Amino acid sequence: MQSEAIMIPTRSGKKYLLMLDGYTYSQINYSNHWFCSSKAQGCSARIRRSEDDVQFIPTEKGKYILVLKGFTYSQVGGRFFYCSSKHMGCRARVRLISGKLVASGDSHNHAPPSHARCGNGAFVQLRPRSQTLNFPTVTSAIPSTPLTSPRASLAFHSLNFPRILPKTDLWLRP
Questions:
Q1: What residue segments make up the domains of the chain, in order of their start?
Q2: Do residues 2 and 20 lie in contact, with contact meaning Cβ atoms separated by under 8 Å?
Q3: Span 51-129 CATH architecture
Q4: What are phi and psi of 104, to 5 degrees?
Q5: Degrees, nearest 5: CA angle 45-51-54
Q6: Strand order in the sheet with 55-58
Q7: What is the pLDDT of residues 78-137, one digit of tens each?
């Protein structure tokens, strides 16, 4: 039979104490490693939590972010948690019923996001370096209609063909 762990928030609200079988364990540097709270008295008991464990991360607005099997869920109301990628069309959700998490039948349509904890306890989402952001190209911002004004066409020309020498032809002559 597996014991049930209880998470006890600390005064700061950023870290937790883990209570298991009546013993408390302190979290080390916001990691998955926990040492017995009596370590100073010589106790060498340690716990390493699995990545599959459930985590509730408090937000600044008083709600929680649920981390379950690598996926993150945002709390909506008191008992509902929707996938944090709901805005991207993911329909996965979880409901808290009598202290137990019950998943809906919907599965995720994306890979789990990568997260890391900073030294201050804040969670940040990591983006792989190979992922490129798509920005509109400069040519899509250029109007396709012909420019009739001489100044506008000259400005358009100077945008497309940068020069090394000063643009003396743009200066007004007396």
A1: 1-49, 51-129
A2: no
A3: Single Sheet (2.20)
A4: -75, 175
A5: 90
A6: 55-58, 64-68, 71-76, 80-83, 93-97, 100-103
A7: 788 888 888 888 888 888 777 677 888 778 888 877 765 565 556 666 655 554 445 444
